[in-house]
């Protein structure tokens, strides 16, 4: 090994944790959005914070871009490596460093699996509120990078609302701390700036998460509708009523069929869409709220309302919802997941327009999403083995994104910008906004070594793709400055 940079990495970790072979690098070429691929120069399997710090310092000294990676479940191309850059894999950094049930906090390494936080805290009647569907496999470090949400973010917020403090290594190797173990902080919200930055500001080494007490009572109901639009309008009615459920989710007929085949959940046979609503809190409060909920669901046009009879049925309802993305493989060999947001008051309108877009491109679009905060997750189904279908699916996805912007929404709710949505930043933000974002990035990482090319469109982007131009760029749809 005559490469000075690789020799330097070899001095930090043993040979078996420095991956250089083609077969070893292959699993790290893409994330959950497999349309984007790039081959890294090396993958380093870090096992300690000190190793990560030394690796980052080495990258900075040799001017080599790096990417921190957890389980690779990103759905925006956010954890695709830079060509000839380094992947710092953090999955082995999976220790709980400190746990204080009295103060309802836990200090963990970035490789801890999200669902394991609640598993550890549950014996004390506590849990970690962010619950992305990939919770059993995704890491908290990845959640921090993308500000992940989940079904219950309507009531409890995103990852940023549950991170108290961070110990991070900046792109030049400097180590610093953001936030405190207290809910009350002073000064700029640097923790909030770091969470959701998609790795552009460095790597979290230690994460202090906030825990919540488990609710006393849950009331979970499935309401069936004869149209997707009617289910969407029901969400606006629920929110306007003043109710604040723990979760409001929508699944359409295609997704219900896939979830039924995957995990055996039964849904009303005539339903074109179902609304999943979960109330939670003190028993007396939930008892009052469920009467109001039932009335609203009836007024909204639900033709069938089925409450979970016990905890087993409740868990089965959520098992069906959380299996939706993986179950979509039963509908199509390939699919693109979008992540746009629309105002809840325009949710029904958005769903009607998405159906029109689906018909226009003759591509099936399955809908499953966090309806409570208007976070759409349309699944654009296609067969990549057929020539031209991927390009058509991307055009369909592009039109859906532009619909979200036109309706006053956002291009992403929790999946991030990554590579996939770079083109839309100029459409959503003005030049002053994007210039400000670039200035913050350059103040932290002037060499742009940390996760280069993601989130912020820049001249470095064209070198990212080993498979050539993005399909939309071939058609003149993507413009990189």
Please provide a written account of the structure.
- This protein is of the alpha+beta class and 481 residues long.
- Helix 8 packs antiparallel against helix 13 (347-361), helix 9 packs across helix 11 (311-322) and helix 13 (347-361) runs antiparallel to helix 14.
- The protein is globular.
- It has 17 helices and 18 strands.
- The strands form 4 sheets. It has a 7-stranded antiparallel β-sheet, sandwiched between helices. Strands 5-6-10-8-9 form a 5-stranded antiparallel β-sheet. Strands 1-2-4-3 form a 4-stranded mixed β-sheet, with helices on one face.
- Residues 459-481 have low confidence and may be disordered.
- A hairpin with a 4-residue loop joins strand 5 and strand 6.
- Among the domains are: 4-89, Uridine Diphospho-n-acetylenolpyruvylglucosamine Reductase, domain 2 (2-Layer Sandwich); 97-213, Uridine Diphospho-n-acetylenolpyruvylglucosamine Reductase, domain 3 (2-Layer Sandwich), CATH 3.30.465.10; 217-309, Alpha-Beta Plaits (2-Layer Sandwich).
- 33% of the residues lie in helices and 19% in strands.
- Provide a count of the helices: 17
In CATH terms, what is the architecture of one domain? 2-Layer Sandwich
Oligomer: single chain
Backbone CA Rg: 22 Å
What is the name of the CATH class of one domain? Alpha Beta
In angstroms, what separates the terminal alpha carbons?
A: 37 Å
Strand order of the largest sheet: 15-12-14-13-17-18-16
Structural class: alpha+beta
Helical content band: 25-40%
Strand content: 15-25%
């Amino acid at each position: 090994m005559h490469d000075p940079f690789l020799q330097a990495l070899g001095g930090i970790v043993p040979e078996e944790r420095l991956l250089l072979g083609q077969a070893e690098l292959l699993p790290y070429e893409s994330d959950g959005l497999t349309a984007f691929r790039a081959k890294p120069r090396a993958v380093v399997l870090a096992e300690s914070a000190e190793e990560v710090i030394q690796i980052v310092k080495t990258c900075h000294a040799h001017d080599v871009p790096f990417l921190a990676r957890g389980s690779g479940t990103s759905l925006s191309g956010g954890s695709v490596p830079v060509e000839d850059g380094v992947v710092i894999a953090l999955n082995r950094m999976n220790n709980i460093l400190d746990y204080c049930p009295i103060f309802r906090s836990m200090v963990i390494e970035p490789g801890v699996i999200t669902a394991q936080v609640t598993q550890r805290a549950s014996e004390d009647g506590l849990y970690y509120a962010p619950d992305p569907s990939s919770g059993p496999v995704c890491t908290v470090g990845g959640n921090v990078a993308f500000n992940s949400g989940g079904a219950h973010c309507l009531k409890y917020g995103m990852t940023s609302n549950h991170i108290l403090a961070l110990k991070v290594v900046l792109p030049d190797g400097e180590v610093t701390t953001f936030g405190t173990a207290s809910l009350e902080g002073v000064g700029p919200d640097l923790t909030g700036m770091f969470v959701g930055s998609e790795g552009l500001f460095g790597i979290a080494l230690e994460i202090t998460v906030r825990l919540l007490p488990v609710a006393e009572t849950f009331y979970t109901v499935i309401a069936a509708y004869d149209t997707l639009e009617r289910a969407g309008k029901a969400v606006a009615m629920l929110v306007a009523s003043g109710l604040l459920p723990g979760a409001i989710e929508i699944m359409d007929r295609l997704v219900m069929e896939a979830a039924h085949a995957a995990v055996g959940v039964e849904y009303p046979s005539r339903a074109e869409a179902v609304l999943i609503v979960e109330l939670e809190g003190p028993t007396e409060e939930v008892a009052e709220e469920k009467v109001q909920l039932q009335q609203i669901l009836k007024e909204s046009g639900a033709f069938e309302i089925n409450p979970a009879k016990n905890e087993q049925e409740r868990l089965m309802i959520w098992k069906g919802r959380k299996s939706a993305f993986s179950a979509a493989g039963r509908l199509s060999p390939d699919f693109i997941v979008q992540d746009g947001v629309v105002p809840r008051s325009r949710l029904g309108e958005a769903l009607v327009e998405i159906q029109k877009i689906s018909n226009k491109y003759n591509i099936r679009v399955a809908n499953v999403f966090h309806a409570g905060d208007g976070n759409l997750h349309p699944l654009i189904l296609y067969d990549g083995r057929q020539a031209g279908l991927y390009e058509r699916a991307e055009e369909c996805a592009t039109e859906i994104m532009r619909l979200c912007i036109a309706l006053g929404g956002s291009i992403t709710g929790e999946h991030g910008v990554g590579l996939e949505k770079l083109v839309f930043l100029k459409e959503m933000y003005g030049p002053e906004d994007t210039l400000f974002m670039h200035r913050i990035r350059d103040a932290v990482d002037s060499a742009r070594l940390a996760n280069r090319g993601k989130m912020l469109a820049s001249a470095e982007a064209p070198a990212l793709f080993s498979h050539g131009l993005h399909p939309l760029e071939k058609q003149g749809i993507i413009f990189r400055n």
